[in-house]
Design brief:
Length: 186
């Protein structure tokens, strides 16, 4: 691991204090990605997501500089997360109750800090503390590095989804079930 790497959990209120840094890193990572990756759209998305019950952000910093982050939230019963999903999907796949599925909305690392284990550390820190039996995320089909990383971390592709955001691309829907912990004897 990288010397000086610090992972930190943030509440929504704490994240507001570093909102411009979060948006700035997002814009650096997705520079040239097109209209969907605009500052305005991302600020709206982040603002809406931060209001979700159970929203969680983990940042990665090296020597005080933000180099990556991951965030997500449990999907409520009336979620719009699955809107735009491509059929067929397994029966009941999109049914939510606020406790079934944790959605990872963003996992990003600055280009200069990639391939150093930061994404894996952020991922593991977030999913290790979750009580939901499954997690989901959306990843671009053409993002080979992310696809390979997610598969190596136990994620599987289920279908595709095109969010209802204007100019949104089509993503692969990936799911990971939580490992079942053995019951202690006694």
């Amino acid at each position: 691991m990288i010397e000086g790497l610090q992972l930190r959990h943030h509440s929504a209120d704490e994240a507001m204090e570093i909102l411009d840094q979060l948006v700035g890193l997002y814009l650096e990572v997705y520079a040239g990605g097109g209209e969907f990756y605009s500052e305005d759209r991302y600020r709206r998305q982040l603002g809406l997501h931060m209001q979700r019950v159970g929203w969680e952000l983990i940042t990665a910093s090296v020597d005080g500089a933000l180099v990556g982050y991951i965030y997500g939230f449990p999907l409520p019963s009336q979620t719009r997360w699955w809107e735009g999903i491509h059929e067929p999907v397994p029966p009941g796949f999109t049914e939510e109750d606020g406790k079934r599925t944790f959605a990872i909305s963003e996992l990003l690392v600055h280009r200069a800090w990639r391939r150093k284990g930061i994404a894996a550390a952020l991922h593991d820190e977030l999913v290790a503390g979750r009580a939901e039996p499954r997690s989901t995320l959306l990843v671009r089909p053409d993002n080979a590095a992310a696809q390979m990383a997610y598969r190596s971390w136990g994620w599987s592709k289920v279908t595709k989804l095109r969010p209802h955001w204007e100019t949104a691309p089509t993503f692969d829907v990936m799911v990971r079930t939580a490992p079942i912990c053995p019951r202690p004897f006694g």
